[in-house]
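1st attempt posting a full record on here, be nice pls
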Amino acid sequence: MSWREMDIASFLDIFRPVIRRLQAYSGVSSQSLARVIGEEIGRGMAAKMTSRNLNDLLAEMSGIWKRLELGYVEIENRDPLILAVSGCTGCEQTPDAGLSLGCPLREGIVKSILRERLGQRCDTTLVQSTGSGPGFNDCRFTVTFARP
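the predicted structure (as tokens):
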């Protein structure tokens, strides 16, 4: 298998020492890296989706999250738009930091899906993350769309 065909987990396993040194030198946080990875994943997911309006897109996202066992996406509020992601699979707390890398990852995914499918610039912001351990984290994101 060439490095171009390698999944991200294998890539990170192999290049972990180099990535750690580069990250330490650059000062880029793990949360920032997770968000960027999420944005790239979100672009790929958006390309496979069909919805073009917010209501249908959120319903489609919710179905994908359930099917991929990523948790549940729900609309908590419409104005401002707040999305709640609960029952996140794979959201473990980072040792000694009390931070979940799953939330910034999902933040990036949601941002890219909304931007790509709706054709609007938007920003997602993590406003709350609670719980500890897989399947018990709840994240809340505000979504702000740029004015046309």
